Amino acid sequence: MDELTRRFQIAAQIAEWGNRMAKFIHAVGEVGRRADVSDDDKQELKEAAENLGKLFRIVADMVHKDPKAAELFEQMTASLERLNEELIRGNSLLEKIANK
Q1: Which residues, 6+ apart, have CB-to-CB distance to 47 below 8 Å?
Q2: Distance (Å, rounded) from C-alpha 1 to C-alpha 26?
Q3: 42 vs 34: CA distance, rounded Å
Q4: Is 34 helix (H, G, I), strand (E, B) or coil?
Q5: Quick one: how far is CA 30 from the chain centroid?
């Protein structure tokens, strides 16, 4: 796979992740306004959302560094996989709390 194709794939993955993150943040806000959700659960959701934001900033900062293209692609792919794992965990937590 050539460098340009890989860059487009990474950009598409980042855009998709951004959309999923926006939905997650919206859902966290909705659950956070519910009176039947404990303060501890709300705090746990808030921390999950903040952790995802921090991870995303790390990925965004990588773009501004100038490693070799192959190294950058490996780093971005690993970071996106980690973001996806964290988002899955966050959504699982959200679902568990929302359905108590």
Answers
A1: none
A2: 36
A3: 9
A4: coil
A5: 18
Q: What is d(CA 100, CA 92) in angstroms, rounded to the nearest whole number?
A: 12
> How does DSSP classify residue 65?
S
Q: Which residue has the tokens 């909705």?
A: 30
| Joined tokens for residue 9 | 């794939």
- Report pTM: 0.74
Q: If DSSP codes are grouped into helix, strand and coil, which group holds residue 37?
A: coil
57 burial (CB, 10 Å; 0-12 / 13-18 / 19+) is exposed
Closest of 60, 47, 59, 42 to residue 98, by C-alpha: 42
Distance CA(50)–CA(56), nearest Å, equals 10
Q: What is the pLDDT along the chain (100 residues), one digit of tens a residue?
A: 677 787 788 778 878 888 888 999 999 999 999 999 999 999 999 999 998 888 888 777 776 666 666 677 777 778 888 888 999 999 999 999 998 8
